[in-house]
TrEMBL record:
Keyword hit for Amino-acid biosynthesis: no
Gene Ontology MF annotations: carbohydrate derivative binding; glutamine-fructose-6-phosphate transaminase (isomerizing) activity
Function per UniProt: Catalyzes the first step in hexosamine metabolism, converting fructose-6P into glucosamine-6P using glutamine as a nitrogen source.
Active site: K367 (for fru-6p isomerization activity)
Sorted UniProt keywords: Aminotransferase, Cytoplasm, Glutamine amidotransferase, Repeat, Transferase
Boundaries of every SIS domain copy: 45-184, 217-362
EC category name: transferase
Keyword flag Nucleotide-binding: no
Main location: cytoplasm
Name of the featured protein: Glutamine--fructose-6-phosphate aminotransferase [isomerizing]
Ranges that cross the membrane: none
One BP annotation, GO: carbohydrate metabolic process
Protein location: Cytoplasm
Residue window of the full protein shown: 244 to 615 of 615
Length: 372
């Protein structure tokens, strides 16, 4: 009913709008006054976490994209090797796991069969399993050694939005907590990131206030057949997520690529006036990354692409090459996905509407896939 949707036309719009609160709620009570993480709910003892020598993240769909982003944060802050794998692939390839492996299973519903099978397999091999889950008492957390709940609240729309942002927050918390427990050389950076995380909810709010031009742009592209998405570093999984949203909702051919791979194939797809969305990393972070992507934008534009550039406020270097410019607030590089994903959700939702598709219940898809 309209009341359930809180005055929005679709649950997805309501859930997109709830993201600042979902992010804040997921942080609530997990950072103390001194800026340290208090994750007592992760019942894996500190000495066990100190012994962990490998982290394996398993998930499906949008949750898998959260895992891909988590890898960058975990390896940077903890220096523990981290693999990310689709749950449906992991289970069937005889993965190498032992008591020193920490498996992180990410699932909004807690009922995805492939993820459940992956965690059962991991536990049989003696690995510890930590679930990141949005649904209290669901199967995946019940069968795990520990759980960190995301506090997104119920997500109804099939295409995941607020659950994704909170999965990212939970992944950052796990990475920072591991860093804290293990006393990594990034201690100062970790404290700074904890502070930045606390202000990210406000940044998401600001993004939501500036989405009208994104909706307009989406409507103008309703007749297109293909949209490409490019990113580097954590912007690469964001590109994958932007493409997934467009497939799910707009039923358009959409692909996400690592911008560095352009020359190895994807650039051959670029046709005149083809929309290409580029996620640009902060120029203040690793500036090499930023410079590289600016030349990628030039390359595709020279081949006729219509460039849709998502870039930080104040990033002037991209302006000459952006046919459409979407501004996002400045955030540290590793946290940028929390703000960069939001315009892509709005973009896909509006394109679905413009194409007459059912936003909350896309064809052929289920909210939770409980068969293998
Ligand atoms: C389905 C949903 C996706 C979701 C995926 C994983 O495909 O349509 O939105 O990302 O399942 O679901 P989970 O509940 O495990 O996060």
């Amino acid at each position: 009913s309209a009341a359930e949707k809180g005055g929005y036309d679709y649950f997805m719009l309501k859930e997109i709008a709830e993201q600042p609160k979902a992010v804040a709620d997921t942080l609530l009570g997990r950072i103390d006054a001194a800026g340290s993480l208090t994750l007592d709910e992760v019942r894996i003892p500190a000495n066990v976490l100190r012994e962990v020598d490998k982290i394996v993240i398993v998930a499906c769909g949008t949750a898998f994209h959260a895992g891909l982003i988590a890898k960058y944060a975990i390896e940077h802050w903890t220096r523990v090797p981290c693999e990310v794998e689709l749950a449906s692939e992991f289970r069937y390839r005889d993965p190498i796991l032992d008591q020193q492996t920490l498996v992180v299973a990410i699932s909004q519903s807690g009922e995805t069969m492939d993820t459940l099978m992956a965690l059962r397999h991991a536990r049989e091999q003696g690995a510890k399993v930590l679930a990141i889950c949005n649904t209290n008492g669901s199967t995946i957390p019940r069968e795990s050694d520990a759980v960190l709940y995301t506090h997104a609240g119920p997500e109804v729309a099939v295409a995941s939005t607020k659950a994704f942002l909170t999965q990212l927050v939970a992944c950052y918390l796990v990475a920072l907590y591991l860093g804290q427990v293990r006393g990594t050389k990034w201690a100062d950076e970790i404290r700074a990131v904890v502070r930045d995380l606390s202000s990210v909810s406000g940044a998401v709010e600001r993004v939501l206030e500036t989405m009208e031009p994104v909706r307009e742009l989406a409507r103008s592209l309703a007749e297109k057949n293909t949209v490409l998405f490019l990113g580097r570093h954590v912007g690469y999984p964001v590109a994958l997520e932007g493409a997934l949203k467009l497939k799910e909702l707009a039923y358009m051919h959409a692909e996400g690529f690592a911008a560095g791979e352009l020359k190895h194939g994807p650039i051959a797809l670029v046709e005149d006036d083809m929309p290409v969305v580029v996620v640009v990393p902060s120029p203040r972070g690793r500036s090499v990354l930023h410079d590289k992507i600016v030349s990628n934008i030039q390359e595709i534009r020279a081949r006729g692409a219509r460039t849709i550039v998502i870039a930080e406020e104040g990033d002037e270097a991209v302006v000459p090459y952006a046919d459409h410019l979407i501004r996002i607030p400045a955030t540290p590089t590793l946290l940028q996905p929390l703000v960069a994903t939001v315009p892509l959700q709005v973009f896909a939702c509006e394109l679905a509407t413009a194409r007459g598709n059912e936003v909350d219940q896309p064809r052929n898809l289920a909210k939770s896939v409980t068969v293998e």
